[in-house]
Specification:
It contains 19 helices and 10 strands. The protein is of the alpha+beta class. Strands 3, 4, 5, 6 and 7 form a 5-stranded antiparallel beta sheet that branches.
Length: about 425
């Protein structure tokens, strides 16, 4: 049964500090007197919830139910404890201090969110699917995502969840007008404008030792609760934060994983879908705390840290080289504490005597592509010029010419001289009309 006193007192405590009125004064005014037990209760509330993201109302009510001092006061005072004056303030943005400079749009209610997205409130509920109805239905036409299962090189499978056009349009609006306004952590280089795998690898060039760590199932590792906490950190009321989370997360339908029971647990609960335009940015923003922790851990060990999606790199000089094995254990433990799974069989400690490679780039003396990758691409281009491009499109790329041009452009961005050689070979290829 709902408890009106608990609900009102919980709302009162939550609203107090945010409005500039101390929680004790606001609660005293609501109850009509300054009860002796009230000040210690508010101090215990502030000790439990006074730091970080504002608490959920259900968490505050659970705190009040479990508080022994409040329970004792209710027994002693009985019906004398009653609501005398209480008028709830309208919803307002309540960002944490660090988020105040980020100019995200102010959206106070679900109706305002629907207007901001340009859809009806009923459509908003349908796309957010907070009740998880899409997971239960075995009707692809009613799903918001297209699903594609890919086999991993290391074994297992990966689920690509591509949003359908209308949902993708909503996600792009959230990305452009909310997520892109939040600055990423300096150590993050994946999916960030102006950064790339080159900037990811650059701080590690010429170091005595590089430690590379790889994470398993990166996007599914972010549950909806973590995404909602981010939106609440930005200041959005709980109802709005929940709907924004629903738009950006997904629980894959049961039928998709009928044949892959071992991976079902990853995708049956709402998570960041790999394939949604918002997922890379949300993954970076939700990883901010672990990035801060790993940066501090690296600095304490005399090392530097960068991350490109699920690839993590640490490097340093002689001091770091002496402790790198023990450091890798501390880094893995930190990642585990933050809810990530490390692929330990892919962890590499690379000293200068071996090829130090990160995200497909070599970082020993300068950033470069691997010799085998360069030679393979050069051979493909040469055979295209000699034998025709049809003979080399063994993987059946629908846009083979654009595919090769993109690979050459990538080499140019990493190593200009090598890229120039490949560009000259590319220019000699005679493309049939079907490739234009």
């Amino acid at each position: 049964m709902p408890d009106p006193l608990l609900d009102a007192l919980g709302r009162c405590l939550m609203a107090g500090e945010q409005t500039g009125e101390p929680a004790f004064d606001r609660a005293s005014r609501m109850l009509g007197r300054r009860w002796r037990w009230l000040r210690p209760l508010t101090l215990r509330y502030l000790d439990a919830f006074g730091r970080g993201t504002r608490p959920r109302r259900r968490d505050v009510i659970a705190f009040l139910r479990a508080d022994a001092g409040f329970a004792e006061a209710r027994v002693k005072c009985g019906r004398q404890i009653r609501i005398v004056e209480w008028k709830e303030d309208p919803p307002r943005m309540q960002p944490v201090d660090a988020a105040r400079p980020w100019r995200v749009p102010e959206i106070m209610t679900p109706g305002a969110l629907a207007d901001w997205l340009g859809i009806e409130p009923g459509e908003l509920d349908w796309f957010a699917d907070l009740k998880g109805l899409g997971y239960k239905r075995n009707q692809p036409l009613l799903h918001h995502y297209h699903y594609r299962v890919l086999a991993k090189r290391s074994g297992g499978v990966r689920l690509i969840e591509s949003p359908k056009p209308r949902l993708k349009e909503l996600q792009r609006r959230v990305l452009a007008d909310i997520l892109d306004r939040i600055p990423p952590h300096p150590a993050v280089h994946g999916f960030v404008k102006g950064r790339s795998i080159c900037t990811f690898a650059a701080p590690h060039v010429g170091q005595r030792v590089i430690l590379r760590v790889d994470l398993r199932d990166f996007f599914p590792s972010f549950p909806a609760a973590r995404v909602q906490a981010l939106f609440r950190t930005l200041g959005y009321p709980d109802a709005v934060a929940s709907l924004l989370t629903g738009i950006c997360t997904n629980a894959a339908p049961r039928a998709v994983w009928r044949e892959f029971s071992s991976e079902r647990e990853l995708y049956r609960w709402p998570h960041l879908p790999q394939g949604a335009p918002t997922s890379p940015s949300l993954a970076n923003l939700c990883s901010r705390r672990v990035d801060c922790r790993l940066t501090g851990l690296a600095e304490a060990a005399g090392a530097v840290y960068t991350r490109y999606a699920d690839d993590l790199a640490f490097s340093g000089g002689e001091e770091f080289e002496q402790r790198v094995e023990r450091f890798s254990i501390h880094a893995a433990a930190t990642l585990h504490e933050e809810g990530f799974a490390v692929q330990h069989h892919k962890t590499r400690i690379m000293r200068q005597s071996v090829r130090q490679h990160l995200a497909g780039l070599v970082a020993n003396q300068r950033i470069n592509i691997r010799r085998t990758d360069f030679d393979r691409l050069k051979a493909t281009l040469t055979n295209c010029a000699r034998l025709g491009p049809e003979s080399q499109n063994r993987e059946g790329h629908a846009h083979f010419r654009s595919h090769l041009e993109g690979r050459v452009s990538f080499v140019e961005s990493v190593h200009r001289e090598r890229g120039k050689k490949l560009r000259e070979i590319l220019a000699r290829i005679e493309w049939p009309p079907s490739y234009n």
